[in-house]
Specification:
Layout lengths: L9 E5 L6 H9 L6 E3 L2 E3 L13 E3 L2 H10 L2 E8 L2 E6 H9 L3 E5 L2 H10 L4 E7 L3 H11 L4 H15 L7 E4 L3 H16 L6
Helix pairs in contact: 1-7, 5-6
Length: 198
Amino acid sequence: MTFKMKKGKLLVFSAPSGSGKTTIVRYLLGKEDLNLEFSVSCTTREKRGEEIDGKDYYFITLEEFKKHIKSGDFVEWEEVYRDNFYGTLNSEVERIWEKGKNVIFDIDVAGGLRIKKKFSQETLAVFVKPPSIDELKIRLKKRSTESDDKINMRIAKASVELATAPQFDTIIKNNDLDTAKEDAYQLVKAFVNDKPIP
């Protein structure tokens, strides 16, 4: 796969569910000086709450997803849970780069590392670390969007994901959300301006 236009930067934010990465990514998207646009992933899972197709995710069928896999349309994809697929289309990265913007991803750990491997020069891969697994459980329960079984599944997965943190370029500890947001802003600002990473 070759991209013909000038490449922008890729900012990957990965973390276990409930670590605060989505909140941090939304904060960064509000910073105009970073020139970011959100990469909308495809997923086969059901919509949650207020989610909007084409804004939060492209909600597609399992069959459509498998067609895209077969055609080699994804930068990365993964079956995160059984029959729950997530992936980033090549066309999504191209769309954002064509606008002259940098791409920001709110993506699971395996997907984040795949993007880093594929675009090592253009990517800053950031791992958002929760204070503890116990705190993560509290945050997930507060969401009230999933059953206890689903939450326990996410917690089991979080332990595995936390072990991958050293493979990322940098780790942000989200003990305090405001501090984590500011840390993320300084990191991304340096990276998009080709300055040394603080």
